[in-house]
Amino acid sequence: MEKRKSSVVIAGGGSTYTPEIVATLVNNLDRLPLRKVVLYDNDEERQNKLAKACEIIVKEKDPAIEFLATVDPKEAYTDIDFCLAHIRVGQLPMRELDEKIALRRGVVGQETCGPGGMAYGMRSIDGVLENIDYMEKYSPNAWMLNYSNPAAIVAEATRRFRPNSKVINICDMPIGIEQAIADIAGLNDRKDMDIRYYGLNHFGWWTKIEDKDGTDLLPKVVEWVKKNGYITKDEIEDPQSEASWSDTYMKAKDVVALDPTTLPNTYLKYYLYSDYVVEHDNPEYTRANEVMDTREKDVFSACKQIAERGTTKGSYLEITNHATFIVDLTVALAFNTKERMLLIVENNGAIENFSADAMVEIPCIVGKDGYEPLAMGKIPTFQKGLMEQQVACEKLVVDAWEENSYLKMWQALTMNKCVPSAKVAKDLLDDYIEANKEYWPELK
Ligand code: NAD
Ligand code: G6P
Ligand code: MN
């Protein structure tokens, strides 16, 4: 029997990730047959820089697939089965401000961790809810796979404000780390492992790494990570990663030392070694600058070349496991594969000794009706304490957005582990309010 064909809209069509997602979608037509691919953005000029190339990528694979790039929500969201959402409200120049405002006050400047992530959260909520509403209005049966950052805060907002919407919040970081873990363990593929993992987004730990025969690989991997972080043997011999990501992968060696019975998410370096992060960052040139000077330039120039030549032949677009994960999740929903995947979902007892209403990142079984979270049992005091502080911070950000509350946002910033005092929190808040006038609700 022929498989049903799906129709997909990419929200944030002008994102640097759009071309690789489009390319990965059409490279997987055997698993996920498509009838339509739509790009939707609220910045026409930016999206147009990528749209022609994306159309060529699609049509070269299968001219029968309809392609559309639009800034009209009705056109974009009509007759859609899946929305892949990766918007960045305020775009990369606002990310630059998130990072620099914090760093100039000696605090971690990062897009999802610390005060920068919280400022970004206050910008993202509206944009994500708006896209959910378009989807529900024009294609009420569609699923949204949302990986717009900061995923933890966005996920709390979707839980609270759109509890019945078909939205799944996800992150690719565990997938990237799992590929490194598989390499370190001597396996070819992360899918050759059985894992257990729990935490919050960008804030979690693996408690089990086994091969398919049930052999425990975790101690061996921990020994490697203690010395080399998640830098694999191949990467040591022939480094491919950007310097800032290598540093993050390497720093995992100090993060793992705090609990060598588990393997940590790399993002914990921002919370556990924030002094180190601040010392090693340059407040005049942050990750946003690096992204604008590398990924953004590379992707836009590759797309320009593809559009000018009318073919993808001879042009280079990098494809990472980020896009593969998103296709895997779409396939699981479309064809009921019951694949086990890490998602950001309401806890509801999955972590036994943790708040029921916290959004946690845990393994779930994914099929046509959505996801079924797996029980993770009780977690230790160290992780529980860290997670409680962080989840309180994330909830207070959403409270501040909901209630237009200056006080709640001040409490949120004070609660964040990267912020040293209420005084610094207040200074940061006033700076962020000034920078985000166009995007934040007015706080009273
Ligand atoms: P980008 O700035 O290149 O692209 C984002 C696009 O979203 C822009 O074209 C912008 O105009 C558009 N946009 C903003 N508000 C919108 C709205 N309300 N409706 C429609 N479109 C809107 O950003 P990028 O670096 O490519 O990243 C895109 C997003 O994906 C970011 O949020 C990033 O953090 C996230 N991301 C998440 C993961 C994850 O694991 N969760 C992984 C990679 C990227
Ligand atoms: C990881 C994280 C994402 C983040 C991405 C890109 O994949 O999981 O949440 O957006 O890295 O970060 P970068 O600094 O390269 O834009
Ligand atoms: Mn992420």
Automatic annotation (TrEMBL):
Q: Where are the transmembrane segments?
A: none
What the entry lists under Gene3D superfamilies is as follows: Lactate dehydrogenase/glycoside hydrolase, family 4, C-terminal (3.90.110.10), NAD(P)-binding Rossmann-like Domain (3.40.50.720)
In the record, what terms sit under GO molecular function?
maltose-6'-phosphate glucosidase activity
UniProt entry keywords in alphabetical sequence: Glycosidase, Hydrolase, Manganese, Metal-binding, NAD
The record describes how the cofactor is bound as: Binds 1 NAD(+) per subunit.
Against SUPFAM superfamilies, the record matches this protein to: LDH C-terminal domain-like, NAD(P)-binding Rossmann-fold domains
Asked if Cell cycle is a keyword of the record, the answer is no
Cofactor(s) of this protein:
NAD(+)
Q: Which CDD domains match?
A: GH4_GlvA_pagL_like
Could you tell me which residue ranges the Glycosyl hydrolase family 4 C-terminal domain spans? 197-419
- What is the name of this protein? Maltose-6'-phosphate glucosidase
